[in-house]
Design goal:
The complex is a heterodimer of chains A (584) and B (326).
Chain A: H1 2-9, E1 21-32, E2 35-47, E3 52-56, H2 63-70, E4 78-87, E5 90-91, H3 97-103, E6 108-111, H4 125-135, H5 142-155, H6 161-164, H7 174-186, E7 192-196, H8 204-221, E8 224-229, H9 232-238, E9 241-246, E10 249-255, H10 256-261, H11 266-274, H12 276-287, H13 306-320, E11 325-336, E12 345-356, E13 360-364, H14 371-378, E14 386-391, E15 394-395, H15 401-410, E16 411-414, H16 428-438, H17 444-457, H18 474-486, E17 492-496, H19 504-521, E18 524-529, H20 532-538, E19 541-546, E20 549-555, H21 556-561, H22 566-573
Chain B: E1 21-22, H1 45-53, H2 57-74, H3 112-148, H4 150-164, H5 168-178, H6 185-211, H7 215-223, H8 227-239, H9 241-263, H10 275-282, H11 291-318, H12 320-325
């Protein structure tokens, strides 16, 4: 693309040093049956030694493809079709695979996305670290290699590293595995480290410590870091420079703070407005009355500004307060018996809370905190070991048959994975009308009409009724799942990580939709999530769970402004972008 | 853009600095977020599989051969008017090809070509009866074991294991030896099918275990859909693809099994024409008159080959991962 080439060079260089990595007008395409599909279209960027640059974009924006092209790790049918990648002046697109092997690992380290899948489960961790050390020729001789391996793990922040060497990947938590992978990536003291969404599979608090560690290590070694993420807040917090990619093109690049404070491209403006981590910061700063918000993101597509969503929600909630409780949970406990183990596992421990009609309560916690188990018990998909669940004042535990069906009518779930929550072999119309059929609501014609009505409510065209889920994007599938949940006109909707798997822009859209539907239909939401940033814009009350117990319960404002428990503070601090001083 | 991303401290109040690059909007047009495209052709697993399969030459070649075999089995009269048994004359014993008898004669002086054509229906019938039997039993056992789990699974799977632990050829040999007076297409199919179904059940059970944990199953449960209905409506249709692939391949296996049993002399009675019987008869004359062995064997191999190829095409077409690789 000429555009990406033309702009800057004339604009005056800040510095005459030769960049460590310079990508000029890179084109990458994937070979398919119907021809070459471009994935990266004329991307350019440059990175100097010792600096950090983040590539930000949604899924499909070409950010990972760009990074993989640098070290020639494009999957199967991918190919660089144009442009150059200059690393210390050498064009990496023109060198042989053998030369690339010399560079890969030794001069350019790589940290992959999924720590669970990137360590071989049949070899000990020590073996894999030593293998990398030997392959990069850092050390020779068994004792020396072992010494280096221990040092790598120590640097990665693993206590008693020498014992850990003999352990296997399944004995490590996700965070520890990612530390090992970072350690391996940095073991040869590379000049450049590429980290492809290194923490998106991990809990927020773990995410924070891993990134702190990564930052410290790269600074000490003087390695430049190329960081790929979908989270604008995270990118701005961790990198000095941002490159925003959209549909394979670079739409904006420059110093992080400047882009955040003054996004110029409409896409970046959208992204800034929609990022929950940033929105929650802005709401917070307005609560603190630090100053009036001054965001030049005026040209934002309607319905994407999460602050607006939060305001609408807050108004509705104010009107809804002082109403009766829709859900009351008393001393709820769930104990799982583990086979071959005398000790039972308490997933949910003495949990009590209540939710007022027409309001949203967020149940927050990291993976394994028991929040989804609470949801399943509410939905009567699992039975409680002890305790009571009252829906509109009725105890749900003894309900059977007809009465249970009536309960199910009042309460509907929306699940996290938009790809798993719709039956791939049933079309959208049948999926949405399934609740109507099950509960024998109306006749065939009125059901069809109701399906169209629901599709309209979630802003999808009627034509989708005869289509299959495989043809829809993640956000559209989630809309269908919401439509199905609304089909029986429920009073309560339980949203289990319902927006966690979506791209930020789509996430903002869905949050907006949920907010609108709540006002329109007087719905009560139980919103289960690990993402406190999202909570900030959607919830009225927050309940924080840790290891099956409730550790804190308050209104959203109280929790954000004045968290009482250390755990909550930790969660709050872990919201990406929290460290960014916003211009005010 | 070769802008230098170097300045570490930027005064945020300043207008866009020199190294702040923005792509011109006309070159990076914004699209509506998550726009719905409905102009494309509808697609789901089965439609996609068909679109994938019909692009492959192997699908058409094996498909053509399977159709040919079926037509031969149903209407042998279209392909030969030589009666396979009644026209046998010992004068032609082990005779070479002559006009009207292009593949020569057997030891009994029967027309080899005519016997192959007329034996087709036997082989195909055995294959079809066996797969109907194995699929029905396999689906019932596999689906209930996988879906209900626990004690049901334990009970059904152990039954399956018992049958699985006995090689079905061996079991069929024993059964057919006992049923020596009742040898027919039906009994031989039953003897093969009754020990061949656990393979289908296992494949289906594994697939059901995977599917039943999907969120859409939980969503239906939360709607109050009954468990049997969830199994029939959601779980089974999503689990059936590998069963279809394995069925085509096991049809080939059943045809081979029938031939094997007939060859061993415990299959169909000599009065019933089948490729296995012909091969059995021909083995004595292998050195003097090999074509009586070669041609029935060739018919058997080609038929089996066609079904196996078709099974592989179907398996690949139904597997989106395999599809993406090509």
């Amino acid at each position: 693309m000429s555009s990406t080439m033309s702009a800057p060079s004339s604009a005056g260089r800040a510095d005459d040093r030769v960049p460590l990595l310079q990508i000029n007008n890179l084109q990458v395409g994937f070979q398919t049956q119907t021809g070459v599909v471009p994935a990266v279209r004329g991307a350019s960027l440059s990175l100097h030694a010792g600096e950090t640059l983040a590539i930000v974009g949604e899924s499909g924006s070409g950010k990972s493809t760009t990074a993989h092209a640098i070290i020639n790790l494009l999957p199967g049918s991918g190919k660089v079709t144009g442009g150059e990648i200059l690393f210390e002046g050498r064009d990496l697109t023109k060198i042989s695979e053998k030369e690339m092997q010399q560079i890969r690992g030794k001069l350019i380290g790589f940290v992959p996305q999924d720590p669970m899948a990137n360590l071989n489960p049949v070899w000990s961790v020590g073996f894999q670290v030593q293998e990398a050390i030997k392959a990069n020729g850092i050390a020779t001789g068994r004792a020396d290699v072992k010494k280096h391996a221990i040092q790598v793990l120590k640097e990665a922040g693993l206590a008693d590293a020498d014992k850990r060497l003999k352990q296997f990947p399944h004995q490590f938590s996700g965070g520890m595995r990612q530390r090992v992978l970072i350690g391996i990536g940095l073991s040869s003291r590379p000049k450049l480290l590429i980290a492809d969404e290194p923490t998106s599979a991990l809990d927020v608090t773990v995410q924070r410590t891993i990134l702190d560690n990564l930052e410290k290590l790269t600074r000490e070694i003087g390695t430049a870091l190329l960081f790929i993420t979908h989270d604008l807040g995270l990118a701005a917090e961790r990198a000095e420079h941002l490159v925003v990619m959209y549909k394979g093109q670079v739409v904006e690049s420059g110093p992080s703070r400047e882009i955040l404070a003054n996004p110029l491209h409409p896409y970046t403006q959208r992204l800034v407005a929609a990022a929950p981590s940033l929105a929650s910061r802005r709401i917070q700063s307005s609560v603190h009355r630090l100053a009036e918000l001054d965001y030049s993101a005026t040209d934002v597509t309607e319905g994407l500004d999460l602050i607006e969503t939060a305001e609408v929600r807050a108004e509705a909630a104010a009107a809804a307060s002082k109403r009766e409780d829709a859900i009351v949970v008393k001393d709820l406990t769930k104990v799982y018996k583990i086979r071959g183990n005398k000790e039972a596992f308490t997933a949910v421990d003495n949990v009590s809370f209540s939710i007022q009609r027409g309001t949203t309560m967020a149940l927050v916690g990291e993976s394994g905190s028991g929040k989804s188990t609470v949801a399943k018990m509410l939905l009567r998909l699992e039975d409680a070991t002890e305790g009571q669940i009252l829906i509109n004042g009725t105890d749900t535990a003894p309900l059977k048959g007809r009465a249970l069906l009536d309960l199910r009518r009042k309460m509907q779930p929306v699940f996290q994975d938009p790809y798993g929550s719709l039956d791939p072999l049933r079309n959208i119309g049948n999926t949405i009308s399934e609740p109507l059929n099950t509960h024998k609501v109306g006749d065939k014609k009125s059901r069809r009409e109701r399906v169209y009505e629901l599709l309209e409510q979630v802003s999808l065209p009627n034509a989708l009724a005869s289509r299959y889920p495989g043809e829809l994007s993640g956000g559209q599938r989630q809309r269908v799942a919401i439509a199905r949940a609304l089909a029986l006109k429920p009073e309560i909707v339980i949203l289990d990580e319902a927006v966690s798997a979506l791209d930020v822009l789509v996430q903002a859209q869905i949050l907006q939709l949920l907010s609108d539907l709540q006002t329109e239909l007087d719905l009560t939401y139980l919103f289960i999530t690990h993402d406190l940033a999202v909570v900030r814009v959607i919830a009225d009350h927050v309940t924080v769970m840790q290891r099956g117990k409730i550790v804190e319960r308050a209104t959203t404002d109280e929790v954000f402004d004045n968290p009482q428990m250390d755990y909550t503070k930790e969660l709050l601090n872990a919201i990406p972008g929290a460290g960014i001083a916003l211009r005010v | 853009m070769s802008n230098d991303l170097t300045e570490r401290t930027v005064d945020e109040a300043t207008p866009p600095s020199a190294n702040h690059f923005v792509a011109p909007l006309e070159e990076t047009p914004l699209l509506a977020i998550d726009v719905v495209k409905v102009a494309d052709k509808p697609s789901n697993l089965w439609i996609d599989a068909w679109r994938d399969a019909r692009r492959r030459p192997i699908f058409w070649i094996s498909g053509f051969f399977i159709v040919l075999v079926c037509v031969v089995a149903l209407f042998p009269g279209l392909f030969t008017n030589v009666a396979p048994n009644n026209d046998c004359q010992l004068i032609n014993s082990n005779g070479g090809p002559t006009a009207g008898h292009i593949l020569g004669f057997t030891k009994q002086g029967c027309d080899v070509y005519s016997r192959i054509i007329n034996g087709t229906s036997t082989s195909l019938a055995v294959g079809i009866i066996v797969i109907v039997l194995t699929t029905v039993l396999g689906i019932v056992f596999g689906a209930f074991a996988g879906f209900y789990g626990g004690a049901v699974d334990g009970f059904l799977s152990r039954i399956g294991d018992i049958f699985f632990s006995i090689p079905y050829i061996l079991a069929a040999v024993v059964i057919m030896s006992v049923l020596v007076n009742y040898r027919s297409v039906w009994t031989i199919s039953l003897a093969i099918g009754i020990f061949a179904w656990p393979a289908t059940a296992r494949v289906l059970r594994a697939e059901i275990l995977r599917v039943k944990n999907s969120d859409f199953v939980m969503a239906s449960e939360a709607l109050g859909v009954s468990s049997l209905r969830i199994l029939m409506r959601h779980v089974l249709p999503n689990s059936i693809a590998p069963v279809i692939a394995i069925t085509t391949i096991s049809l080939a296996g059943a045809i081979v099994a029938e031939a094997t049993l007939s060859f061993l002399g415990v299959g169909l009675g000599s009065s019933i024409m089948s490729w296995g019987n012909d091969i059995n008869q021909a083995q004595k004359d292998l050195r003097t008159n090999p074509q009586t062995l070669i041609y029935p064997s060739l018919a058997l191999s080609l038929t089996v080959f066609a079904f196996i190829l078709m099974g592989e095409v179907i398996r690949d077409a139904l597997d989106p991962k395999a599809r993406a690789l090509r």
